[in-house]
Amino acid sequence: MKPIAADRTDSSRDTRRLALYFGGLIVVYAIAVAAFWNAEQKDGVFLAVMFAPTAGALLARFAGPGVIRWGRPNWWMIAGLIPAVAALLAYYAGSLLGLDVLAVPVLLASLVGAPMAIASACISAVGEEIGWRGFLWPLLRGRRSFLMASLFTGGVWWVYHVPLILFGWYGQRAGIPAFTVAIIGFTLFVGVLADRSKSVWPSVIAHGAWNALVSTGFEAVSGTGLTPAFTGSTMWVGEFGWLAAIASLIVGVSAAVWHLRQPGAAAIQSADPTSP
What we know:
The protein has helices at 4-9, 14-35, 43-50, 52-63, 76-79, 82-97, 104-141, 146-166, 176-197, 201-214, 242-261, 265-268; strands at 101-102, 219-222, 225-228, 230-231. By secondary structure, it is mostly helical. The strands form 2 sheets. It has a two-stranded antiparallel sheet. α2 packs antiparallel against α4, α6 crosses α11 and α8 crosses α9. The longest helix is centred in the middle third of the chain and has 38 residues, at 104-141. 47% of the residues are buried.
């Protein structure tokens, strides 16, 4: 009898696994959109949609059968903060150039509260990352190159966001070009994290930090509620602004070039996704 682990990594079942994964993701996504279509507040749909990749991954894991690579917490989690730090530097440079306005007291408060904000954002980010970097990325990297896996994952991730943008629930349509650039850079960077760490947790930190800090303009609690440290045109500031997009692209491309030039990079492609 074939060992269970062999069934879970048998490449002949990849098409079945992907069909189950995307089927589960799409069904949960569609149910969430339909359930909250007329809701005044869209927080519910965002939370449900963010866990759609996990639903697909769990379906593929048990019915595929497939693999979800959880991995262990490790020092690569600290590297997960790099995109947020790069965006902070870009925002600061933008304030010097007059592209945005910096409120220093708010930024200091934001940095003090950053650990708690990131931890909170990671609760929802993990819903996506279990699907993207826990299931889909290891499956692709077992059969494809880093760049091909990045292209496929990034394309799926982009399509996943677009309906919410077109419905007017998330971001703004005019910001789609900058958002696309940010997705490209971020996909490359977290792909490096996933390859090097063999764990989903560094990408969860990267995703959570981006959502908590970058997309909000490094907001902090003030006397009037939540106030962003960086304000200005959405063309420059926020998740759909060009400052964060350019920072993400520079970080992603730099990380990918470094990763692919390292002697051990090629061996990662054939690594067993069930390994810790």
